[in-house]
Amino acid sequence: MSSQDIPEENLPEEQAAAHGAAGHGGTTALAKRVDDDPFHDPGLPAHKPRIQDIDERAAQRSERTVALLFTLSMLATVAFIACFVIFPVDKLVYIWPFGRVSALNFSLGWTLGAALFFIGAGAVHWARTLMSDVEVADDRHPIEASPEVKAKVLADLAAGNEESGFGRRKLIRNTMFGALALVPLTGVVLLRDLGPLPERKLRETLWAKGKQLINMNTHEPLRPEDITVGSLVFAMPEGLKEDDHNFQIEIGKAALMLVRIQPEDIKDKRELEWSHDGIVAFSKVCTHVGCPISLYEQQTHHVLCPCHQSTFDLSDGARVIFGPAGHALPQLQIGVNAQGNLEALGDFEEPVGASFWERG
Predict the structure, then answer these.
(1) DSSP character for 329?
(2) Helix (H) or strand (E) holding 175
(3) Residue 329: inside a domain, yes or no?
(4) Domain count of the chain?
(5) Range of 24's domain?
(6) Cis amide linkage into residue 184, ω under 30° from 0
(7) How far is CA 74 from CA 77, 80, 107, 128, 269, in A?
(8) What share of the chain is helix, strand, coil (3-state, %, to 5)?
(9) Which end of the chain is more exposed for a tag (fewer CB within 10 A), N or C?
(10) Whole-model pTM above 0.85?
């Protein structure tokens, strides 16, 4: 590329002067310098206007195209929600070349993909056809901007906003807002797929007044004499069988541990009232993330969760004395029935296990 191919206004001052002095004849010293320097600044090419810049009808066609793409995104989002409601989880359909696939997953994937694609396509088409495409060169400046630079930036932002037509082209603006507002609904709808609402299931267990405490090892009713000082015994509610289809769910809430403590060593007044002859019953489910508690230290009356080392004092209302657990272990009030077996006098008064949003 020779200096004759470079507009004079884009050349440095000394090169422009030499260019004017050399005229149009032959190869000049300046041209040789430019040819020998592969890193010279050629300047910006002349701006070529687009059809939308000179024809308002073309601009309006582009505006309608962008609005159509945003509208298609909104329709795809509505279709996503409709497919989530219409198709059952177990429905299979044949789709070539994939074979038999889940109708729900297939439809959700395509509709969500379409919703996101049309938003992106609309934004790209808007930028390429209606927003300003004039290239602007700006010299580097110090990191700390001067007041003049700050004022220039604000002016550039205002100019960019004006050139984008965001305020004037209300059709594009409104359809874009609609598409962006509807797309997040896909994520909200997917939350429903986490499972049925728990209702009261997190607050209630199988324990109830009159239910006997069954030894989880012998499957026999527990009697007070079965529990000695220093021992740790695990119990489950009467009527729960290991071959029940919901055994794991129910035992995960109702699992109980019992220890015998000398009544004079029990510090918490309510714990003493809810015990029987020093036998106290607490939930076996750790209040951190729900691990089963299984380690008991007789001298201190502490129990330790093996997962994350949360430690509870069973002589003081099973309060947390160490670790990440958020609250004490719930206590079950117990007594003895006419047959001399230990029984529950009700359910836990608070939810067992880890905390959840609705927990009081």
Answers:
(1) P
(2) helix 170-182
(3) yes
(4) 3
(5) 3-36
(6) no
(7) 5, 10, 16, 22, 62
(8) 40, 15, 45
(9) C
(10) no
